[in-house]
Design brief:
The protein is of the alpha+beta class. The chain has two domains: about 5-115, no CATH class; about 175-335, Hedgehog/Intein (Hint) domain (Endonuclease - Pi-scei, Chain A, domain 1, Beta Complex), CATH 2.170.16.10. It is about 30% helix and about 30% strand. It contains nine helices and 17 strands. The chain has helices at about 5-15, 40-45, 60-65, 65-75, 90-100, 105-115, 125-155, 320-330, 330-335, and strands at about 20, 25, 35, 160, 175-180, 180-185, 195-200, 205-230, 235-240, 240-245, 250-255, 265, 270-290, 295, 300-305, 310-315, 320. Strands 4, 5, 6, 7, 8, 9, 12 and 13 form an eight-stranded mixed β-sheet that branches. Strands 11-10-15-14 form a four-stranded antiparallel β-sheet, with helices on one face. A three-stranded antiparallel β-sheet has the order 1-2-3, with helices on one face. A hairpin with a 2-residue loop joins strand 14 (about 295) and strand 15. It is rod-shaped and about 125 Å long.
């Protein structure tokens, strides 16, 4: 196409379904005829046929309207399927790729053919990128709202975890003496007055001592405990400030001060070394007080008291252990049980 008139003629032929004749004219379904040179177009073109009768796949078919009709009709019986997506692109864009000087002429021809100005659709890749950005933005917003909702739910349902009062988990196992028989049961099933396995430090023998009261009891509170494991696989869960017997002299110290290698006293086994100490969260807490001031929990000897330290009087002359301080504190209750 060398000028606007020729391009208009070619566009008209394409949109109207006309044919290029050998003499350079274009036939239309209507009684209209325009002149356009098609010899150069055919000479520079490579024909690729898809579908229809194979014997009609020839340039002669392009030049002969009757052969073209036959080929079109043959597509009904031997059609072809598109293998790529089709989309519209302004002709001016394609022409500019070949020769930028023809851009304005082609654009003007198409504008004149369409009857006015037109807007070029944005590049499909840019449109797709914009769509993906919008989807990502929407997804991020939904994720943000979801996280905010989860935070609100966590605020509502997450219980407060504390490290005290200083007790044992309710499911800790203790041994009682009932109807002449030793029984093991969860601490939460104990009742005041039950005879619970304890230790007589002076006589250095195990004994059953009555439960005289609960210092603390809460079945629903979440508490941070220390999980102390021994080399024989025994273990006890106890709060950090609670006293526990350590070493051959049954020295009492807070559980948080127990170290690996320290020896705890076990019923029927004697002293067993600590091999690991970790923190765990358990629901519920119980602090039983026995007349003996101590109790075997999970078979390991522990004190009934907490938050007590050794007391020194007159410098270093007199030293009272934390366990003794606890015994003195609960002495009135121990005496009162004989009268009431």
């Amino acid at each position: 196409c060398e000028n606007v008139s020729q391009m208009k003629c070619a566009l008209a032929a394409s949109f109207s379904g006309g044919y290029f004749n050998i003499d350079g004219s274009v036939d239309f379904d209507q009684d209209t005829s325009q002149t356009v040179s098609n010899k150069s177009l055919l000479a520079q073109s490579t024909l690729i046929w898809n579908g229809g009768t194979r014997e009609l796949h020839d340039k002669k078919t392009i030049k002969d309207p009757h052969l073209m009709d036959r080929w079109r009709n043959s597509l009904i019986t031997t059609p072809t399927m598109l293998t790529t997506d089709m989309y519209l692109e302004p002709m001016s864009t394609m022409v500019q790729l070949v020769n930028g000087n023809k851009y304005e002429a082609t654009y003007d021809a198409l504008k004149d053919f369409l009857g006015g100005n037109f807007t070029v659709v944005a590049n499909r890749q840019k449109v797709e990128e914009e769509r993906l950005r919008e989807e990502q933005k929407k997804k991020e917003e939904e994720e943000r709202k979801k996280n905010e909702q989860n935070k609100k739910e966590d605020t509502i349902v997450t219980p407060t975890v504390s490290s005290g009062p200083d007790c044992f988990p309710p499911h800790s196992i203790v041994t009682i003496f009932e109807n002449g028989i030793e029984k093991m049961k969860p601490m939460q099933e104990l009742n005041v007055g039950d005879l619970v396995l304890s230790y007589d430090v002076k006589k250095k023998i195990s004994t059953f001592s009555p439960l005289i009261l609960w210092a603390h009891a809460d079945q629903y509170r979440d508490v941070k405990y220390l999980l102390i494991k021994l080399e024989d696989s025994s273990k006890i869960k106890i709060s950090g400030e609670h006293l526990i017997m350590v070493g051959i002299n049954h020295k009492t110290m807070m559980a948080k001060n127990v170290n690996k290698g320290d020896a705890l006293y076990m019923l029927h086994k004697g002293f067993v070394k600590v091999v690991a100490i970790t923190e765990v969260i358990e629901t519920g807490l119980l602090a039983p007080i026995t007349a003996a001031g101590n109790i075997f929990v999970e078979g390991i000897l522990a004190s009934c008291y907490a938050n007590l330290v050794d007391v020194k009087i007159l410098g270093e002359l007199v030293k009272i252990s934390g366990q003794t301080v606890g015994d003195l504190g609960f002495l009135p209750l121990r005496v009162a049980r004989y009268f009431f």
